[in-house]
Design the sequence.
């Protein structure tokens, strides 16, 4: 059952959780940059962070 849930929420849900972490005053973007640098290659990290910034800017507007 956990594998099915992971597959279901793996894509977009991770972005939602990342945005929640960014909006938390204790963590901000530094935690996301740190975690992404441990999980992905540097080129992928830059792409994912740019995508998160774009989402946050769209939410702000």
Sequence:
């Amino acid at each position: 059952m956990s594998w099915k849930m992971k597959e279901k929420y793996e894509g977009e849900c991770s972005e939602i959780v990342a945005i929640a972490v960014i909006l938390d005053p204790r963590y901000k973007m530094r935690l996301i940059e740190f975690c992404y640098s441990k999980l992905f290659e540097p080129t992928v990290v830059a792409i994912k962070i740019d995508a998160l910034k774009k989402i946050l800017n769209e939410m702000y507007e």
Q: What stands out?
A: The chain has a mean pLDDT of 83. Residues 2-60 form one domain.
